[in-house]
Specification:
Blueprint: H1 2-49, H2 56-59, H3 75-78, E1 81-87, E2 92-96, H4 105-118, E3 122-125, E4 128-135, E5 138-145, H5 147-222, H6 226-256, E6 261-264, H7 265-282, E7 286-291, E8 296-299, H8 301-318, E9 324-332, E10 335-343, E11 350-351, H9 376-386, E12 390-396, E13 399-405
Parallel strand pairs: 7-9
Antiparallel strand pairs: 1-2, 1-5, 3-4, 4-5, 6-8, 9-10, 10-13, 11-12, 12-13
């Protein structure tokens, strides 16, 4: 349990950190990209307003005259761009590549043809951001080279991801190290709890044995009565309770000591279920076994047999009236499926996984007739989890079905 809690703690911590880092990295990189688009679109707008040229006013402007302006007098000399003029029939009229060295007139004409084919007012074509300005006499296509800006964004994104990856690894190592310290009080408390349960259970056994022996002496001298029978029933309940508490307390230790082997699940289930057919008949109930032969399972056979005993004990105790109980074992893909179905009209419809919580009992079982303690299904769940399986409980049309996949 502590190991699982530690793994969950590490997982939650790392997932939280990963989510925060992802949000920060995405926000920064998206903001950078939007800034580049904003600046480039501003350049395109300026060039479009002046027939594909920078205005003379920006060239003679001093930086201190408008310090908040995005563009400076150096902008016309820093910007690599070219323009293509088309007539109203989409024929090339004029090409201007004087402000760029990487594009020839022929290449500019090819870029213009691609933009006309796309028929979009603006966008990216390779590393060039373009804008299409349509007028009555023709079309002006303006292309701005964004190679440097896009490379900067790409390098920053890769660097941020790389650094974040190393940061995550470093934090992971720290979390793994400090998780032992953080969870040490919990582990100590849990160990004390297990020790208390084990000690208390052993201490209770002696008084119960004495009471049981005294009750038998009373019956030998005065005969059996409803009072002695009631006492023996309560003793039996307490003995079962202490045994189940010990099982739960030792479950974590036994998980590491489980003998995982391949065994016949069909035979193990059938042998474990046969005694409950007699028990069910004495309570005027029927237990139907639908076990497919030849099913093998990899696990702890002893634990699986105990699982079947707990499931059927629960079903026989709590199935309503003279209801039917069905135990099915079948192969489902690569998994082995075990399901127990019994009548339970008093249960609410829907998911009932709460039944696996420790000491949880329905109102109908909170009496001495059933003798339940609310631990049996918790033991079942612990065994299933020890085999890395899944367990669920669902009530439909007055029937409770507990399904296990191993």
């Amino acid at each position: 349990m502590i190991a699982a809690l530690r793994r969950r703690f590490i997982l939650v911590a790392m997932c939280s950190l990963l989510a925060v880092l992802t949000a920060v990295i995405c926000t920064i990189n998206v903001t950078n990209y939007q800034k580049v688009l904003e600046r480039t679109d501003g350049l395109l707008e300026m060039l479009a307003d002046h027939d594909g040229q920078f205005p003379e006013s920006i060239k003679g402007q001093r930086p201190e005259e408008n310090p908040k302006d995005t563009f400076s007098p150096e902008t016309p000399y820093e910007t690599r761009f070219f323009t293509v003029n088309l007539d109203k029939y989409q024929n090339v009229v004029q090409i201007n590549t004087r402000n760029i060295a990487a594009v020839t007139d022929k290449q500019a004409e090819m870029y213009a043809a691609d933009v006309v084919e796309k028929n979009k007012k603006s966008g990216f074509l390779s590393v060039y951001r373009y804008k299409m300005v349509t007028e009555d006499e023709g079309t002006l296509l303006i292309f701005v080279d964004c190679r440097q800006e896009l490379d900067t964004i790409r390098i920053f994104a890769l660097t941020s991801i790389f650094v974040s990856g190393f940061g995550l690894l470093a934090v992971f190592l720290l979390v793994v190290f400090f998780s032992r310290i953080v969870l040490r009080p919990v582990a100590e408390s849990f160990e004390k709890q297990k020790q208390f349960i084990t000690d208390a259970s052993h201490e209770i056994k002696t008084p119960l044995a004495i009471i049981d022996a005294n009750t038998e002496v009373v019956e030998m001298e005065y005969g059996e009565s409803q009072w002695t029978q009631s006492t023996k029933n309560q003793i039996h309940r307490l003995v079962n309770l202490t045994q189940q508490l010990i099982i739960l307390a030792r479950m974590d230790e036994e998980r590491t000591k489980q003998q995982m082997t391949d065994f016949s699940l069909s035979d193990a289930v059938e042998e474990s279920a046969l005694p409950f057919q007699v028990m069910a008949e004495t309570k005027k109930k029927s237990l139907n076994l639908q076990i497919k032969s030849g099913i093998t399972c990899h696990g702890d056979e002893k634990a699986i047999r105990q699982l079947i005993v707990q499931l059927l004990d629960n079903a026989v105790k709590y199935s309503s009236g003279t209801g039917n109980i069905e135990l099915r074992v079948l192969q489902k893909g690569k998994k082995c499926m075990i399901s127990v179905l019994n009548d339970a009209p008093e249960l609410s419809e829907g998911n009932l996984d709460i039944l696996f919580e420790r000491f949880y009992r329905l109102d109908s079982s909170r009496n001495s007739k059933t003798g339940g303690s609310g631990i049996g299904l918790s033991v079942v769940k612990a065994i299933v989890e020890g085999h890395k399986g899944r367990i669920s409980a669902y009530c439909r049309k007055g029937k409770l079905e507990i399904t296990i996949l191993l």
